[in-house]
Specification:
heterodimer; A: 717 residues; mainly beta; Immunoglobulin-like; Maltoporin, Chain A; 2 domains; 22-stranded antiparallel beta barrel; five-stranded mixed sheet; 44 strands; B: 173 residues; alpha+beta; four-stranded mixed sheet; 21% helix; elongated
Chain lengths: 717, 173
């Protein structure tokens, strides 16, 4: 046990690359066994204060470099301890540190499942407004409207009941009523990186993690105050066909973001706000958005810290459902031109971390997601429009215990309360859930790491037990050499139906949707084998083979009463493979990435292909840096979707809705870093859909036309 | 050895660049296009006016559409649509109007003879079953005898008017 009354010391140092000895900006430094850590500044320097004297291990990590741990770092009183380290470059994406796969920090090569990481640079260089835009470039991921599909796990159901769980710093971030991901409510200036875990994650994360987990890791505060200002503006080009041109001039979008972070003694403060507006390239597809966020962190001691975060979204938008027809693809039906949705959503969360010792660590987390929306879309049940208010509260306590150098146990308890009040559309309902999970990671001889664990979930909806399930998992990682990692995993997944799926009572395009109180959870078994290999300092490869067996998939379908209900109707099997190749050249100035994913999403019940699942995804990306400029190009090929909701076309609800093509998209970008009045400034121009390719990204919805984005970002530090 | 590796990596980068350029060229295909452009044909179909009288209560007129059938239907009219043997307009509004103009541009049905043109009313919640015929296009004096329409491949046939008398319905298919 550490003595918390001991005298204090300090570590200062610099992190640089072993290749060219250049300073590394943004490298993460962590003092093992404490809450103390920081990241390097613009000169690669860092300092950690207030350290009780003693012997420590210091871990440094950064994407693109091999993670390094320096042991026997002895902190004493008096002069600060100088620690300067050089990190060894590795091909991009092979050595990021991830926290999502096993609920603890570890190298990507140590986890038994496929994980992709989007770092801050990738988020900012592509000028993405919301995170789902950045996910479009992740191997095996494609986005239908804003619904995320990892390796064929999800089709499309207007966001209701996602099969991919979104976490923010490890806690679920889903709306209580529809159980959907609201991307725009994520604080846009606060994201450090995004981790995407592919395959069932229910053994640690419970419901909704059937197809995968996306974890948003928010930024930690640096030692020096920093203010970041970002402004962008752009326009959608008019379509070339006169019959598609519904507006007199090009539609535009703008945004402004300001965020400030500062450390005052043991207190860290972050606050920010953004205003974003988009006229929409489709008629009545505009939005106006305010986001604000704040975070207060306090290091009670070197071994315990507390943090409170708040974020708010206020949004007004039009509601574009389907195009009018193929001759008017950017206009909705005339009676939908005035449809509007207004929403306010906020999240309040808190966390407490305590290191009892270097081996024993506990974290308590609490999150409250409030969601309120109303629309003016009339139905026979709500002639004046619908509205909903929901509160989703989740709490969790997690403990990690390192039994020995070769064994770590993770155990946790979590509970949720969900309250929905939504007049006619969902009604008034409440749900409760509790879960217990346990995981053991054991390092065996011959560089084999075994992970085994499981989670028991209990869920009740208004006193009725709807879920009582154990989800086990087992994973194996074998590292025959430092550059090769082989892995295998099996896990069970499930998804409890959302309140919206059980209780929706509404009318969409003349179709009446009614409740189904007999809905059961969806269940799955997920299998994966794969490996990664670093061929040399320039080339790395990765291969995965996977299969998911799914039961009771929930889909909306006509019932025997003539009405549509959400029903457990599909038994499915998704088989596939994914291959990735990363190349770095010219002393890391040229970075190329290639990935190809094939999935065969089989609807066993109907002996057909599952709806809205493309079978081929091919993503190519190249980035060339020649200081102070950087040029990038992204290409995406998504094969034509085999199957859609044909009924919507046959019944005339979506005229020409069956018209769809393969997707070929090219995005290019040019950015430059320069100084203005001594301050670092980054300016960039992005051209998305460079070749003005017209495609539908969902039935009756044309994807974005060619658009240009100019952005300017200044950092005051 | 190093030079071989360097050469291999350079070749791989070049290959990737080449693939990107090739695939970018595919985009010049332009993807979706308006119907008239994509099919390189002029629109064809029918238009006219529905004359309505004796409207029933509003809550029993959930939908009203003009439907064109290739042949005289022998079964549920929704089945005919689902099997690609009929096409219909968007929902025709407003309720209680004396006359409603329509245009039906055909896309699934090929140009040729339409043996049965009718107005369908959805009177109940079941979108698959709760339909009935409330008026048909007829060419002679017998309002119960369906008239045929010859649709040429390059034009919209005008004057296909239909009388809808909600109190006196034509024979149901």
């Amino acid at each position: 046990m550490f003595s918390q009354q001991a005298d204090r010391g300090m570590i200062v140092g610099k992190i640089s690359s072993s290749e060219d000895h250049q300073a590394l900006v943004g490298a993460n430094i962590l003092l093992e066994g404490t809450v103390l850590g920081t990241s390097t500044d613009a000169e690669g320097n860092f300092s950690i204060r207030n350290i009780p004297v003693g012997r420590y291990s210091l871990t440094v990590s950064m994407i693109g470099f091999k993670r390094m741990t320096k042991t026997d770092v002895v902190v004493t009183t008096g002069e600060p301890l100088q620690v300067s380290l050089e990190l060894e470059p590795v091909p991009v994406q092979t050595e990021p540190v991830v926290v999502t796969a096993n609920k603890r920090e570890q190298s990507l090569q140590e986890v038994p499942v496929s994980v992709s990481v989007i770092d801050e640079q990738a988020l900012s260089s592509r000028n993405t407004v919301t995170v789902d835009d950045a996910l479009r470039y992740v191997p095996g991921v494609n986005i239908t409207q804003s619904q995320v599909n990892i390796r064929g796990s999800t089709g499309y159901s207007h966001g209701v009941g996602t099969r991919v769980l979104l976490l923010v710093d490890g806690l679920p971030f889903l709306s209580g009523d529809t159980g959907e991901i609201i991307w725009e409510s994520l604080p846009p200036g606060q994201i450090e990186r995004v981790e995407v875990v592919k395959g069932a994650g229910s053994a640690l994360y419970g419901s909704s993690a059937l197809g995968g987990v996306i974890n948003i890791i928010t930024k930690s505060v640096r030692d020096h105050p920093q203010t970041r200002l970002r402004a962008y503006g752009g326009m959608y080009e008019m379509p070339k066909y006169a019959t598609w041109q519904w507006a007199q001039e090009s539609r535009s979008f703008t945004g402004f973001l300001a965020t400030h972070q500062q450390r005052v003694g043991n207190l860290s403060i972050t606050a920010g706000a953004s205003r974003t507006l988009d006229d929409g390239y489709k008629r009545n597809d505009f939005w106006r958005r305010w986001n604000t966020w704040a975070r207060l962190g306090y290091d009670i001691s070197p071994f315990q810290s507390i943090a409170v975060s708040f974020s708010l979204l206020d949004q007004g938008r039009g509601n574009f459902l389907y195009w009018k027809n193929l001759d008017h693809v950017l206009e909705p039906q005339d009676d939908q031109l005035t449809h509007r949705v207004q929403s306010q959503r906020w999240n309040l969360s808190g966390s407490y971390r305590y290191f009892f010792s270097r081996e024993l660590y506990t974290m308590v987390k609490l999150s409250w997601y409030h969601s309120k929306w109303e629309d003016n879309i009339p139905s026979r049940f709500d002639p004046l429009g619908s509205n909903s208010r929901s509160d989703f509260v989740v709490g969790e306590i997690q403990t990690n215990y390192q039994l020995s150098d070769d064994q770590i146990v993770t155990v946790g308890l979590s509970g949720t309360v969900n309250q929905v009040s939504a007049a006619a559309i969902f009604g008034e309902h409440s749900a409760r859930a509790g879960a217990l999970y346990l995981q053991d990671e054991i390092r065996l001889p011959e560089n084999i790491m075994l992970t085994a664990g499981g989670r028991l979930d209990l869920q009740k909806l208004e006193g009725i037990e709807v879920v009582n399930q154990v989800n086990p998992k087992i994973g194996l990682v074998y590292n025959p050499s430092p550059s090769t990692s082989l892995r295998a995993s099996v896990g069970r997944g499930f998804r409890a139906p959302s309140i919206a799926e059980i209780f929706t009572t509404t009318e969409v395009g003349g179709i009446i949707i009614l409740p189904n109180a007999n809905l059961k959870p969806e269940r799955s078994w997920s299998f994966e084998v794969g490996g990664s290999h670093i061929i040399d300092e320039h080339v790395s490869t990765e291969l995965s083979l996977f299969q998911n067996e799914l039961w009771d998939l929930i889909e909306p379908a006509f019932g025997t009463d003539g009405y549509v209900h959400f029903q457990n109707i599909i038994r499915a099997r998704i088989t596939g493979m994914e291959v990735a190749l990363n190349l770095t050249m010219l002393e890391r100035l040229l970075v190329s990435q290639f990935s190809y994913t094939y999935v065969y999403p089989e609807d066993i019940t109907n002996n057909d292909i599952l709806k809205y699942r493309p079978r081929h995804l091919l993503y190519l990306s190249q980035r060339l840096t020649f200081n102070p400029f950087q040029v990038g190009v992204d290409f995406r090929y998504i094969s034509r979707t085999d199957r859609i909701d044909d009924e919507l076309v046959q019944l005339g609800i979506v005229p020409n809705g069956d018209q769809r093509v393969p997707i070929y998209l090219t995005d290019v970008r040019l950015s430059a870093e320069w100084k203005f009045a001594g301050l670092p400034v980054v300016s960039s121009i992005n051209v998305n859909n460079l070749f003005q390719y017209y495609y539908s990204d969902f039935i009756g919805n044309l994807g974005p036309t060619r658009n240009y984005v100019l952005s300017l970002e200044a950092r005051l530090e | 050895m190093d030079s071989i590796r360097r050469h291999t990596v350079t070749s791989a980068v070049r290959a990737l660049s080449f693939i990107i350029v090739c695939l970018c060229n595919v985009e010049c295909d332009q993807g979706l296009a308006p119907q008239s452009v994509s099919q390189q044909i002029l629109p064809y179909g029918i238009n006219g006016v529905m004359y309505c009288k004796n409207w029933p209560p509003r809550d029993s007129v959930l939908d009203l559409r003009l439907v064109a059938f290739r042949n005289v239907p022998t079964q549920n009219i929704v089945n005919e649509v689902q099997q690609g043997r009929a096409e219909f307009t968007q929902s025709l509004q407003p309720y209680a109007a004396d006359s409603i103009a329509y245009t039906l541009i055909l896309s699934t049905l090929q140009p040729g003879i339409l043996e049965y043109v009718a107005v369908g009313q959805r009177y109940g919640p079941d979108i698959m079953k709760d339909w009935r015929v409330v008026g048909i296009y007829h060419s002679g004096r017998d309002t119960t005898n369906p008239g045929t329409v010859q649709v040429p491949p390059d034009s919209v046939v005008p004057g296909i008017n239909v009388l809808v008398d909600f109190l006196h319905l034509p024979p149901q298919p």
